[in-house]
Amino acid sequence: MIRFEGVTKTFGTLRAVDDVSLAVEPGTLCALLGPSGSGKSTLLRLVNRLVEPDAGRVLVGGEDIAGLPRVELRRRIGYVIQSIGLFPHWSVRRNIATVPRLIGWPRARIRVRTDELMELVGLDPGQHGARYPDELSGGQQQRVGVARALAADPDVLLMDEPFGAVDPPTRRGLQESLIAIQRRTGKTVLFVTHDVEEAIRLAGTIAVLAHGKLLQLGPPAEILRRPASEEVANFFGGPLLGLHLLQATMIADRADFTDTQEGEPLDAAAPLETALARMISERALRLPVIDRASGRRGVIALTDMVAR
Ligand SMILES: Nc1ncnc2c1ncn2[C@@H]1O[C@H](COP(=O)(O)OP(=O)(O)OP(=O)(O)O)[C@@H](O)[C@H]1O
Ligand SMILES: [Mg+2]
Prior knowledge:
The protein is of the alpha/beta class. Helix content is 37%, strand content 24%.
């Protein structure tokens, strides 16, 4: 759905993006992960032509975007910018309706769509629809930013640190909403973050960037098991990298479903970190597990943290 082929972007003598090749499959979420200044936002902005490459090309849905009119391209792409960027003098409803209004949707259709989107991102249309951005909390504003990006039903969603400015529990809530939205709508998402845990939680694929270069590309657990270089390993926490593996591996992948045990079961779809945390707080070496989808029951043991 999105493909970078040997893309380079320089600002003066600085190579902000340096010969990056990367493909994002339809319906997946790819996280661009790297330290500040590594070129994440620049790479994202190359997709909607806010930035033009000096070399290489970018394809969206198989088409070279250099040949597409910018306006048409941007209609197909939702964009959540690093600083949210809501229009302060517009109500929440009007903010969400920016693109549909621009492309001339009828009033009634816009009304239905904005209500639907507010529900989707967990805002009550009656309560929040007429408010102005400064009458919302930071997390609520970020929800409006996501709803606005989804408004005209784009295939591709570009999100630049969309949940940066909120406290950890709110952030977790927003991340869970995004996972649910992405599952439900099948959007292709390119998501910028410098937060390792956020990338692990959200992404099917992580692209690790540093000084404009793509250092490694792959599913979170694969990168954590086999970091391509010391630089990658260090970015994932160096000696603490193994702890992130407990976030990237699900209980279902390690539990023993031929065994059962009494007690309040853990959700098999949760990461191993959840099981380890409960073992520590309950001083238990084994805990019951349930796979909520199939109803299967099993057991997870402390030794399963390492391997099964
Ligand atoms: N318009 C511009 N003109 C000159 N230099 C720029 C421009 N945009 C970005 N840069 C430089 O390119 C480099 C990469 O910037 P970019 O915004 O892509 O980084 P980032 O990975 O998104 O960082 P952060 O996590 O801090 O947002 C930085 O050194 C930045 O100063
Ligand atoms: Mg940035």
